Amino acid sequence: MSRFLKTHRDEATAAEALRRASILRRAGLPTPHAMAGADARQVSFARIEGETGLPLLASGLAGLLELVALLHECPVAGLPPLDPFRRIRPREALLRNEEIRSVLDETVPSGTATLHGDLHAGQFIRDGGGTVWIVDLDDLTLGPPEADLANFAAHSATSLQGGVELWADRVRAAWRDIGRPCDDDVFRRLLRIALVRRHLKLRETGRPDHEAMVATYLRESSNFSIL
């Protein structure tokens, strides 16, 4: 099996990535085998050949989310608490809509699940034998399961047709279909933040940033309970 190298910013970050990947594989999570690279800043991963991204959605969300549920239950010591604004702050200068900017003042729900941190359909690969793998585990944090669901819904809503409510409903329904609870209030709070993160990433790269759709959802979902 061929391998690919991922270079991290320093040796400590690479060592931590290797530690986390090893823990998750030992816990039974299907993620590529990892080993130290020749350069101390690198981690070498087994290359998984197969389908990824949108083609996997045609088979339904439940199979993908079962892996996410398994990840959520894998204990990984030393993870930081969820900070959903971490990818937003460096791009804050790109905000032009005050309604969208106001989300930065909202309260972040807490939790203890091991979160992927950047979940979307492109983080799964289905190999030729039908096994689905979950990849790109560099952003692990501890928080409520709804955070991963919100990121998945936000990415899908800004990549595919259907809009925010459609993908929010699909993701929550699939999560409940595999027997997992979803707190709708927590999900809605985190989806608001995830949409802002996605909006800014798209704007930064010059792609359609769905400002009107994001602002509309924020306006219509602003009535939630106080934590």
What does this structure look like?
- By secondary structure, the chain is an alpha+beta fold.
- The protein has helices at 11-26, 54-57, 62-72, 98-101, 146-157, 163-177, 184-204, 211-220; strands at residues 3-7, 34-36, 42-46, 50-52, 113-115, 124-127, 132-134, 141-143.
- Helices cover 41% and strands 13% of the residues.
- The chain folds into 2 domains: 1-47; 50-220, Aminoglycoside phosphotransferase (APH), C-terminal lobe (Aminoglycoside 3'-phosphotransferase, Chain: A, domain 2).
- It has a 3-stranded antiparallel sheet with strand order 1-3-2. A 3-stranded antiparallel sheet has the order 4-6-7.
- A hairpin with a 4-residue loop joins strand 6 (124-127) and strand 7 (132-134).
- Helix 5 crosses helix 6 and helix 7 (184-204) packs antiparallel against helix 8 (211-220).
- The model has no long low-confidence stretch (mean pLDDT 95).
Runs in which pLDDT lies below 50 for 5 or more consecutive residues are none
Number of strands: 8
Topology as H/E string? EHEEEHHHEEEEHHHH
Shape: globular
Mean pLDDT: 95
**Helix content range:** 40-55%
Beta-strand fraction estimate: 5-15%
Tally of discrete structural domains: 2
Give me the CATH architecture of the largest domain, please. Answer: Alpha-Beta Complex
Structure class:
alpha+beta
Task: Quickly name the level 1 CATH class of the largest domain.
Answer: Alpha Beta
Largest sheet: 3 strands, antiparallel
The quaternary organization reads as single chain
N- to C-terminal distance: 49 Å
User: CATH fold name of the largest domain, please?
Assistant: Aminoglycoside 3'-phosphotransferase, Chain: A, domain 2
Number of helices: 8
**Neighbour order of strands in the largest sheet:** 1-3-2
Computed CA radius of gyration, to the nearest angstrom: 18 Å
Kindly report the name of the CATH homologous superfamily of the largest domain.
Answer: Aminoglycoside phosphotransferase (APH), C-terminal lobe
Domain Aminoglycoside phosphotransferase: 5-175
GO molecular function: transferase activity
Protein name: Phosphotransferase family enzyme
Keywords: Transferase
